[in-house]
Amino acid sequence: MSGRSTTLILLLATALCIIGVQARSQSNPRAPRYGPDNFYGRRKTNSKPNIVVILTDDQDQQLGSMKYMPKTLRYIAKEGTTFTNSFVSTPMCCPSRSSILTGLYTHNHNVYTNNDNCSSIQWQQTHETRTFATYLSNVGYRTGYFGKYLNEYNGTYIPPGWREWVGLVRNTRFYNYSINFNGKKINHGFDYHKDYLTDLIANDSVSFLKLSKQYFPSRPVMMVLSMPAPHGPEDSAPQYSHLFANASDYM
Question: Are 201 and 149 in contact (CB under 8 A)?
């Protein structure tokens, strides 16, 4: 990617900084998809910005959580823009996620709870075909989604508009979960090095970005990193589990 390329980071909820992850190799079956079906050729770098949406789950700025994330503050918040008068229209998981995807208020997309119409057939047929992914894909973006999607997403299909799809089946878990990886359902266990969802999202998204820029340098990238944290269960990575033993901010 050219040094002149612009990466536009949209901070929805609060951003989670991802530092020092290793991309996966091309031979790995979990590597991003690419091929002649959508190869545009090696041309000059596209002027359209790359877009990275980093979404965290149940993170509340008012509870002071950002003071525990100095890297995020240093590398993203202090280098960007903070919207101090911005509000979520419906502060509930699936309705809010449906609004983020479509730009519609709850009374227009009809997802009112985490169960009622969440990832339903009606949602799939009426609104899922018109998310920002479909529009950006249609104008040449390579799109990728990594992590939690909708609470009732059952993993049987890839939503329209996503070139690379690593979608969590159902609700938040860090271990013992299933994902739809580009149409294939993969079950994960309780091995930190192979299964920890936060790291999997980081590794797969970085791999997708690097390979996209290697094989499709003329095409802009839009990807969503939808982190499960800090939503429960509170399964921290083992190397960080000792850091906040006496924390009482959320008690």
Answer: no
Cβ distance 94 to 110 under 8 Å?
no
CA dihedral (31, 33, 36, 42) positive or negative:
negative
DSSP 8-state assignment for residue 77: I
pLDDT digits (tens, 9 = 90+) for 80-111: 888 888 888 888 999 999 999 999 999 999 99
Query: How far is 135 from 40, CA to CA, in rounded Å?
Result: 18
Taking a C-beta distance cutoff of 8 angstroms, is the pair 159, 165 a contact? yes
Residue 93 bears catalytic tag: yes
Whether 46 contacts 7, CB under 8 Å: no
Selected catalytic residue, list 17, 93, 94, 118: 93
Query: CB under 8 Å to 56, separation ≥6 — which residues?
Result: 13, 14, 15, 16, 227, 229, 230
Tokens representing 34 are 């690419």
User: What's the predicted TM-score (pTM) here?
Assistant: 0.80
